[in-house]
Known about the structure:
By secondary structure, this protein is mainly α. 54% of the residues lie in helices and 2% in strands. It comes from Strongyloides stercoralis. One of its GO terms (molecular function) is protein farnesyltransferase activity.
Amino acid sequence: YFIMVxxxxxxKDATFKNLNxxxxxxxxxEEVEKDVYEAYENFLNFLDxxxxxxxxxxxxxxxxxxxxxxxxxxxxxxGASTMESSRTWYCFWGMHTLRLLNYPINDKLAHNVITxxxxxxxxxxxxxxxxxxxxxxxxxxxxVMALLEIGTEEAYxxxxxxxxxxFIKSLSVxxxxxxxxxxxxIDMRATYCAISIASILNLDMDVLFKGTAVWIRDSxxxxxxxxxxxxxxxxxxxxxxxxxxxxxxxxxxTIDLTNLSCWLQLKQxxxxxxxxxxxxxxxxxxxxxxxxxxxxxxKNFTKIEPNFIYPELDAKALEAFTLFISQDPLGGLKDKxxxxxxxxxxxxxxxxxxxxxxxxxxxxxxxxxxxVKVKKKEKKLNEKxxxxxxxxxxxxxxxxxxxxxxxxxxxxDRASDxxxxxxxDRLKKLEEKADKLWxxxxxxxxxxxxxxxxxxxxxxxxxxxxxxxxxxxAMQLSIKKSAVHSLDHxxxxxxxxxxxxxxxxxxxxxxxxxLFMSDLLPLDRKLIPFNRRPLAKLKELTNGxxxxxxxxxxxxxxxxxxxxxxxxFIKALDGCSSVVVENIANQSSSFLMDLLMERPExxxxxxxxxxxxxxxxxxxxxxxxxxxxxxxxxKHPTMKEVVIKEIETLIFRKNIPLKTQQYAVGFxxxxxxxVVEKNxxxxxxxxxxxxxxxxxxxxxxxxxxxxxxxxxVYRVLPYAKDKINDMNKEIESLYKLISVAKxxxxxxxxxxxxxxxSIVGTVSDQFYASLYRFMFRDHPSKYQKDFFSLIxxxxxxxxxxxxxxxxxxxxxxxxxxxxxxxxxxxxxxxxRLVKTNKNLILLPENQDFDIFKVEKEENNTSDIEVEDEDxxxxxxxxxxxGNIVKLEAQIDQSKFKTPVENNDNEKKKFKxxxxxxxxxxxPQYSKxxxxxxxxxxxxxxxxxxxxxxxxxxxIHKTEIIYKDDFKEDLSIIRFLDRFAFxxxxxxxxxxxxxxxxxxxxxxxxxxxxxxxxxAFLHKYACLKLTKSKNVDEDRFSINSDEFxxxxxxFSDKHMVDEExxxxxxxxxxxKELEDKNKAGRKRKRTSDAEKSLYEVLKxxxxxxxxDSEEEVGFGYDDNDSGDSDNDSGDSDNDSEGNDDDSEGNDDDSEGNDxxxGEDVDMIGSDNNLDDENE
Length: 1174
């Protein structure tokens, strides 16, 4: 115990005054002061003492700190991996801490430390931070000091004074300073380490430290402290190194001690009592030594300079900061409140405490010793007076029958109002009494159940020396036997879970979950804390029976403690849900969900933990949480609103990652509703629209989250029909999204707006204008079917004929410029719409009508200016004789407001629209209803037979019937696959399309049964593949025998006259012959390779690997360039089913390209094909 007289720290008058100017420094300082006061109050509560007697009863927890140091020397957590280069420092900090505490150091620990330090010693004489690293002055200092702290002969034998002398000398810069290591940094720490090592090992100081005192002196700043180098900011650690180094060199008189004293006193914090390291910095426990020790050095300097006035250290304040604020009763000392304990701060905080104690005057120290003796005597007397008998002298109060639960016979009274509660000292005293009664009852229980020595020894052996499985089994049996008397065992098991040792978690988590669900938690109620019990009417509940009162107090106290242990367990489960091992993480989340679904205890905390796991960085774990939450709302549908509310809190939390929001919204979109859950639907819609607004503000228009939100709104909308009219502003915001988002999101948003408008009963003009503009965008094949479905539904429900005609006109434009599958489906959609209204198509009577001629005439016609308040529209039509006539639109004046006239009464002039405007924003005024559909005439001449046929049917007002998939049947990639004689990827309902093009059955098929999209292939097969293979296909080529003979004669000069033929001409023919022979050889090799092309593409090696590229048709010369084209379809055998990702990526092929080169040559050489087929 330490007695501190007249202590005035933690006084609010000494707090920081910011003078109404708030800065980062002042804000941080005020926050630390607040934390210090809270830590002081908590420490007093822990010791159960008041402020008046705090300074008489404050205690240094020597045993806890000693165990903490031992633990740090034997095992370090993964968080200390960054200290790999400072492990010799750990040895010094640990050994020095144990010496300060006078804690026994066993021989094994000392030997292990010595062995490790030996491993860190290098040949150059220095020590490294860890084995295998470079020698460094700082680890050398730590290693030497640790060995001296051990102080055994084995430790001293590790120190080679000569080699250390050479090592220090090798690090000298020459100006008095030192490197930390060879070629390393230069600062005050290196200088101090060198001086300290040389001094304590009695090395030659004069040789090593020439000019060092001058270099240190030059590092003193104007404010009095010392920096790491000359001309840098003063720092507490460097100041200690400088002052201590000069003291060891006997050169303290060379510096400005007055300024140093002032600087030191300003660094002791007036409120906290500890020291800070630099100006305007926060308090830090380690500076208790770095700064506090300088006071002791300067005080000792008065022995040399009696006239020197040394600065006074507020030793009492420093002791108070160390004992009340820095130390942790569980072991270790920390930097400041809110920081974890570590060995570094433990070592230097205790060193500073030691300095503060020795700084006291002699009479005060004698008073401390005297008071300690008095306290010890009082303690012995109190122990003699105390009775050893428990209050419940009648025996065991709480008995649990075999197979029964502790809560079946308990007292579940809860205070109904505030008058039944107790608070303050009355509550505290009653709770202390309950705690004592409970512990006494536990002692009686264990004595009665362990009457035999064999039983006692068995439990002790199992719990101390047994395997992990044996220990938890023994604890489990004890808990099941009597849960009230075995809470310590339960708490021990939960503590193991908190350490997250993966090897133990598999078994232990399930065991604890089963214990809580089967034996500890009530089924139909929550656990009640002690302070919510009706303690004020305790005697009334028990009729004054003392035995009944004691029983209630014990059970109420146990239930309150069990509630706390259970919370620790679910917190441990939450921590295990974030571990890297997927099985453990999912298992922990599953256990949390089981507890949430089966027991009401802590359900809000568990739900929050599970929802927060949607932000788990491991996507599989986050996805598993969605599965668990769906399982929860399926089993408890009434919890939907609670779960959605928790999800909403997560989504709109500050700085939440986009990925977490995506998982959260993904879960919301999977919630199934029914017609009676209108409130839930409205709650979801508010979340979705708020999220849309947020994403638009952040310009995250094309993220996947936006897509999910639109899907969610679309699914929820039918269940909130009554609330749609109240969400006009939210729906209006969707129009902005349509114009700025990517295609898929815009498409879904349009569908969403149309659905909401359909529910209300009226579709707005703004929707049709947005859809009209949307039709100008490029339409990916993935969304082609959805696009035309939306067009059909929208135009079908439109009641304005002019607008319907505009959409029909734009569909024809899409067909004119689109690929065959897009054009065919556009015409098919027009055909479906024509069924609802046959007047939607306007055909010119003159089928030879030329649209380009009309446009030319219109462009040559000058615009007419009119003075009128309204726009006048003109357009052209075709009369009965096929002539072009000008029409004037009849406008309903009631639809327009009369504009206000200007003050000068000048009338505005407008340009008149005289023809169909395909670029207008409003389809209702595009004049499409007054223009014939001449596009059909051009579509009738389309190169694709299906498109041409659809256009012809529309012209003749014939119904269009098509049951297959346009994208699958009319895409270019499918045509190329069929052209290459490859099998279809998907089985078609039409058996003809499943036949190979080069098969006899396909060739012999009746042309009338052939589908239109197969007509060209069938005609090609009939004309090409039925030819005899004996026909010489190269009859016109240069490989003919006669021409070869001529070339040979030319090359041998048998038929050449030198006067008629020059050598240059002969060279041309020789080169051509050589090329043709080479091509022939390639052709021969290729014909063999083509027979096994399928195996080659599957990865089977060929017989001639050096020519493998040519064998599969990739190395032909110009004459055979067409042969390689047919292999493109086999480039990707794994792309089946991915055709939705991008248009034209269907490269899967299962066919065999036989006779590739032959077929390609025939396409170019067959004269029997007419021009159109070519």
